[in-house]
Amino acid sequence: MQNKDNQSKRVYLKSTRRWVEVSEEYYRDHTRYHDALRKRQQSHGQCVCPKNKFWLCDGDCLTCEFRRAGDMLSLDYTVENEDGDACSPLDNLADPAPSIDVNNFMSCHRFNLIRCHKSAHFPVMLSIAYTIVLSYLFASSQDSVSQAAA
Fold first, then answer.
1. In the chain, what are the domain boundaries?
2. Over the stretch 130-150, which tens digit does the pLDDT of each residue have?
3. In angstroms, what CA-CA distances link 60 with 64, 70, 72?
């Protein structure tokens, strides 16, 4: 049996194709991180790395030879529903620019602005409210321009 002092931990570097001796602490952290990553990918069906090749795992899943698509589908992937209509995950995304009633927004937050008026946070709150209103007005003016062009 070997003496514990003579035992060393090694990590395989895929980029250089060499084994590197590392400390016990680094080896433990390295192994824990890559095991957790691999298990997470395997639970989603994205990693099919066999157990005898775990030492090859370097955490770069995008370039790994054992990578699979798993349960991550493209937004353009279409399926038929019960009615025979084709639908994709892209159809279920929320509208990126929801409509905001500026008057309602300001009346709802007026109390917060008044309450913060006497504190040091008032200028920050006022600038945030001003920025939100301006961004909404800019977005609505862009929508008006695009609708007028159409």
1. 9-73, 102-149
2. 777 777 777 766 655 555 555
3. 6, 16, 17
- Calculate helix-pair angle for 122-149, 102-116, nearest 10 degrees: 170
Identify the sign of the CA torsion 122, 128, 130, 132: negative
For 7-105, list the strands marked E by DSSP. Answer: 9-13, 18-22, 79-80, 86-87
Q: What percent of the chain has pLDDT over 90?
A: 12
Distances 35 to 20, 26, 58, 74, 115 between C-alpha atoms, Å: 19, 14, 10, 27, 51
Per DSSP, what are the bridge partners of residue 9? 22
Locus of tokens 């409210």: 129
Task: Supply the DSSP symbol for 69.
Answer: -
CA distances from 133 to 27, 101, 114, 147 (A): 53, 10, 17, 21
Number of Cβ within a 10 Å radius of residue 41: 21
